[in-house]
Fold this sequence. Notes:
With 576 residues, this protein is an alpha/beta fold. It contains 18 helices and 23 strands.
Amino acid sequence: xxxxxxxxxxxxxxxAILAYLLRPINRPSFTVIEPxxxxxxxxxxxxxxxxxxxxxxxxxxxxxxxxLAERGFQVSVWEAxxxxxxxLATRTxxxxxxxxxxxxxxxxxxxxxHVFADIRKRLGIDHYFRPWGxxxxxxxxxxYKPEALESQGPYPWNLISIVLRSPNLRFIDxxxxxxxVVDLLWFDHKTVWGKYDEQSFxxxxxxxxxxxxxxxxxxxxxxxxxxxxxxxxxxxxxLSMNHIYFLSHPRADRREVxxxxxxxxxxxxxxxxxxxxxxxxxxxxxVGRLNFTExxxxxxxxxxxGEEGVAGSDFDHVVLATNLQGVKSILDASSVSPPSSLSSPxxxxxxxxxxxxxSTAALAQLRxxxxxxxxxxxxxxxxxxxxxxxxxxxxxxxxxxTPDSSPINLIAQYHLLEEESAEWARRTGGSVIEFxxxxxxxxxxxxxxxxxxxxEEVRVLxxxxxxxxxxxxxxxxCAQNFTLVDGYVAHYEDFPSFKKGLxxxxxxxxxxxxxxxxxxxxxxxxxxxxxxxxxMERAVATGREAANVVLQEEGIRQAPLPVTTSHGPGLRVLAx
Length: 576
């Protein structure tokens, strides 16, 4: 009898423990990195002037400029191109006998874009955004049916329901692939980067014994849209992306799109806010080199190189927020001037010598580190204007991902996305469809390169893509006799490579300061961070980090940094 009571007692305790562990909890999707100097003043004291150059008017540079300008710094933004925005840059193009705003390419804003969400709120632009539902996948492989992927319900039931709803996944495949879930559900940012950056994601998947169907249906789509070579991309980068975009929280896959072009929705309000704060924004102005001195940073424009007696401009701090190629070029051309005390033949003081020697060594170290970093393969974005709209099963799907249909990786129906394209479609009965062509290795130009006659390239490219589109992606386009009316092809080779083994060379925003270049900080999506980040969110987060380097150096309180949690959910049930 006593043994029965003991068994029942232990059973009750076990049930109570399980009930406690499995109760839904409201775990926040982010954490906040608080200022390192919370006692310092929020703004520069009245009468104090500090000049900061932000080199680069993309998302990283605009983010840094906003933080510094709001604190009273005199900020100048130099952007080499004619337009601001970086990967959200929007250009005005004449198509179909009217003017269209054409962006760099389609983007989505995810629930874990916490810094970007804060900026949106401060700019008052949330009304330009709307939700985008399940992701639609179309596979070339005949073994796989089209798939709609969306997280529903609390964790971990949201993951179980994906398998239940899937026309391709089976529980036996999930059971056979359980080994890899440890790195996903018990994700730890520091551990993952220290352990898996030397492996490619495909090598990690093979080592973990992931079932082929799981890899093809759940992971290949993400690999396809990284703009990197999927066979070489770092396992750590991919595990971090899975954490950010899906596993860190049941709502992590929630995303939004804009109702209008990115210039109208984001960049123009951002620029207006900066100008209201006194920021001087100059387009078509490219930094050629930096000269670090004991009193500041002397900046020379690229077009000034070679001119005699160029004065340049002097700043107290510089935030390098150009793309990776720009940063490498600027660092290679930059120099450190010895303090004035070193210009005489007498031995320098210990202090001045240390400052000069340390800064010179820091610059050399930065050049060395960045020399190992690479650019991802070229890619193209093709926005096509057709005479009619889809009538098939995807006629209302704004985005389709096509993970195994190279060279096409993503298709976006802009007449369902943005008001300008929607108005044209209503008036003409046509459609505006954008094709993303990543890691471009094919050729369609017959050796012409960029020497197409006006309007010729869009027709040649469409004929090149037509067999893939009509073969298995959207066969109704050919069945309905779609005719190409006009189009625009953008060529890019500016996205950072995240191939395996590069993380150890990737600096952080504060690396120059830590090495001894105290007047320089970095910002951009090619950097590393101490927290999970990627793509646009990495750009704006490192922009804020770069600003925080300047703020702390000047004794001004740093800005809080909301970031995705660095740890996976484990087995705790998370409320949706």
